[in-house]
Design goal:
The chain contains 6 helices and 3 strands; from the N terminus they run H-E-E-H-H-H-H-H-E. It is mostly helical and 117 residues long. It has one domain. Helix 3 packs antiparallel against helix 4, helix 3 packs across helix 6 and helix 4 runs antiparallel to helix 5. It comes from Oryzomonas japonica.
């Protein structure tokens, strides 16, 4: 009986990890506000785009200029296409994702990295 519970627990953890690795989307937290970076809500627009934070984050990330442009447009454009932004995020190398995460953190954000494997 105990082994059955352990196996169920292991299966649940593996399922969760596998599901989380399928997406490059991530949660962003700042000033008690949170949102997925691919969302198109007013909170994201205000906190990241209107404040100018996304410009500082992208500059601090030192990602290639074309990637910075794609990320900025993907996050802040009024004609946001979630799938295009997800594709940009998924095409990033682990080093680029790490640089982006560190740039968010350097600008006062916390990042949920569960979805970034």
């Amino acid at each position: 009986m105990m082994n059955k519970h352990i196996l169920i627990g292991i299966f649940a953890v593996l399922t969760t990890l596998t599901a989380g690795c399928g997406s490059a989307n991530f949660l962003v937290y700042k000033d008690a506000k949170h949102f997925y970076v691919t969302s198109d809500g007013a909170t994201l627009k205000k906190v990241l785009c209107e404040s100018g934070d996304i410009n500082r984050i992208l500059t601090d990330s030192r990602l290639p200029e074309a990637m910075q442009k794609d990320l900025h447009e993907g996050i802040c454009s009024s004609n946001k296409v979630k799938e295009r932004l997800l594709a940009t995020l998924e095409d990033m190398t682990p080093e680029q994702r790490s640089a982006l995460k560190l740039a968010f953190q350097a600008n006062g954000y916390q990042i949920n990295t569960i979805a970034n494997c």
